[in-house]
Amino acid sequence: MQVSHPVYDVVVVGGGINGVGVAVDAVGRGLSVFLCEKDDLASHTSSASSKLIHGGLRYLEHKEFRLVREALAEREILLAKAPHIIRPLRFIMPHQPHLRPAWLIRTGLFFYDHLGKREKLAGSKHITFDAATSPLKAEITQGFEYSDCAVDDARLVVLNAIQAREQGAHIATQTRCTSAYRENGLWVIDLENTQGRYTVQAKALVNAAGPWVAQFIQQNLKQKSPYGLRLIQGSHIVVPKIYAGDKAFILQNDDHRIVFAIPYLDQYTLIGTTDHEYQGDLNKVTITQPEMDYLLDVYNDHFKHQLGPQDILYTYSGVRSLCDDESDNPSAITRDYTLALSQEQDAPLLSVFGGKLTTYRKLAESALTHLQPFFPTMKKPWTEKALLPGAENLVSVELLIQQLIQAVQDVSVQLASRWAHAYGSRVWIFLNNISMLHELGQDFRHGLYAQEVDYLVNQEWAITSSDILWRRSKLGLEFTETEIQALDEYLLELHKRRAMSAVA
């Protein structure tokens, strides 16, 4: 049994977007930070999103003006911070007069264009559809177009974790917080991983456990949760690419919800999301048959090309932890975040309820504002202008792709594009001056080579093939079971070598 009791300023529980956001903000302000995550980074809600950085057009109907204003401003900030993993995306909203009148949509889009600071993204406009060329059904003749952004959600989490580590934070994945209690003005935090159990101490504890936030308070801290929690499942389906072009569609439905159809990984279309109460095992969230039927029905109501269950290549589901506002409609529950501060013996507990991918940075700033009285020497906010790893010295992704094609013989445009969008300027770290593809080591197929795998294990906390294929590279849709097995065998040997090296 390992015995150690280092004292950190802040310990963060949870390695989703909110947890890493708080960690990187705190460590950059001069605080010592430890973050633990029971699984892989972004392994739950933060990798199960619609892959969007958006203001939330539909939130205007629920009068969430503060949230929308903040999210709209954050689009521009995040686009500048990480242009390799975030890109502008135009959305088309087919007009369905029986659902929302045109004047209402125009009013909403006017607010959407002007509520937040908008410099890089184009404004909205009314459009008409050519029945001969439009993928939409002939009766849909007009609509509206506006801007938001697409993002690689899991990589957004990983890049924040890398930045936190480089600022001095300790990031411990596959490490569960089994309990925590206050003693002598500090938090005593018991942790467990595959190597055993150990303890750290903290002046402040941040509970960013996402769907587990209330459960963590009740079971691990033996306290009462200050807020009720609504667990809302959102599911997506992935199908072969169903229309030409690079624009997304936002589809209205009779239940007043919306469903997105989004170009995904060049050859697929992502359709989602759903909204319904979830009461099952948070570690085993899967799409239900009614959810699949719902998404297919909404899509088929709009598009000429019809889809059936046989067209679904992949599904994923996540649970959003929303602060209970006693709404009868899951879609109407606020997506805004609530921070609950509990202080006893000068050892504060800050719990994060709710939140969305787009506003993680502002949530973190708000969290540090809550903790400021306990750390009077804390530095000022700093993350707004700080580039995320890979954005340094990045003139443009397009230029980087061309540089990669020139530097590495036989590299395809598709592979160079994946590298550039995933790693930005840091792609040169794992390429390490190689000039030919075969120099990258074992070929696992589909553009994945040993040198990239080694980099992901050594620098990005990847342990399993799922970590690499579904969260770090998004190659999971391409790999066969045999190919996955080959990657698993390589990873097993790699971890053995690392373990032996650590002992030596």
TrEMBL record:
<dbReference type="InterPro" id="IPR038299">
    <property type="entry name" value="DAO_C_sf"/>
</dbReference>
<dbReference type="GO" id="GO:0004368">
    <property type="term" value="F:glycerol-3-phosphate dehydrogenase (quinone) activity"/>
</dbReference>
<comment type="similarity">
    <text>Belongs to the FAD-dependent glycerol-3-phosphate dehydrogenase family.</text>
</comment>
<feature type="domain" description="FAD dependent oxidoreductase">
    <location>
        <begin position="9"/>
        <end position="343"/>
    </location>
</feature>
<keyword id="KW-0285">Flavoprotein</keyword>
<dbReference type="GO" id="GO:0046168">
    <property type="term" value="P:glycerol-3-phosphate catabolic process"/>
</dbReference>
<keyword id="KW-0560">Oxidoreductase</keyword>
<dbReference type="InterPro" id="IPR000447">
    <property type="entry name" value="G3P_DH_FAD-dep"/>
</dbReference>
<feature type="domain" description="Alpha-glycerophosphate oxidase C-terminal">
    <location>
        <begin position="383"/>
        <end position="489"/>
    </location>
</feature>
<dbReference type="Pfam" id="PF16901">
    <property type="entry name" value="DAO_C"/>
</dbReference>
<dbReference type="InterPro" id="IPR006076">
    <property type="entry name" value="FAD-dep_OxRdtase"/>
</dbReference>
<dbReference type="Pfam" id="PF01266">
    <property type="entry name" value="DAO"/>
</dbReference>
<dbReference type="InterPro" id="IPR031656">
    <property type="entry name" value="DAO_C"/>
</dbReference>
<keyword id="KW-0274">FAD</keyword>
<dbReference type="GO" id="GO:0009331">
    <property type="term" value="C:glycerol-3-phosphate dehydrogenase (FAD) complex"/>
</dbReference>
<dbReference type="InterPro" id="IPR036188">
    <property type="entry name" value="FAD/NAD-bd_sf"/>
</dbReference>
<protein>
    <recommendedName>
        <fullName>Glycerol-3-phosphate dehydrogenase</fullName>
        <ecNumber>1.1.5.3</ecNumber>
    </recommendedName>
</protein>
